[in-house]
Design brief:
- Helix content is 30%, strand content 25%.
- The protein has one domain.
- It is globular and about 40 Å long.
- The chain has 2 helices and 8 strands.
């Protein structure tokens, strides 16, 4: 079954959100992480919800550094970026390209079998 572009974007967005909730990695290891997220009600009252009570497991300021491996096509890289922008619009999470000072970050890559790894 081939996914439409919108289905692929939605699936990628869901994947990114779930990944950001449970993965925080650096060059050597991975540790679990949770993200705080907020819900907005119709009356514009903002309610904060927390996925964890452990503050050390939350991405600082909701900022998630990322690297997209060059083994993705330009089209796939663009889909990742669109999915990230989608989640930035609906959550307090922000995805930023990794810089040298970022100790923890997520990396998207494809292995030789074609499986997505992060």
């Amino acid at each position: 079954m081939r996914l439409s572009t919108n289905q692929l974007i939605n699936a990628t967005a869901i994947f990114l959100f779930l990944l950001a909730e449970v993965v925080r990695s650096d060059l050597v290891s991975s540790t679990s992480s949770d993200i705080r997220f907020r819900r907005y009600y119709r009356n514009s009252r903002r309610v904060s919800r927390s996925a964890t009570a452990k503050k050390e497991r939350i991405w600082p300021e909701g900022i998630i550094p990322f690297v997209i491996a060059t083994n993705f096509s330009g089209e796939h890289q663009h889909l990742f970026l669109r999915a990230m922008r989608h989640w930035e619009n609906y959550t307090c999470v922000s995805f930023v390209p990794r810089q040298a000072h970022h100790k923890h970050y997520i990396t998207f890559t494809v292995d030789k079998c074609g499986l997505l790894n992060a």
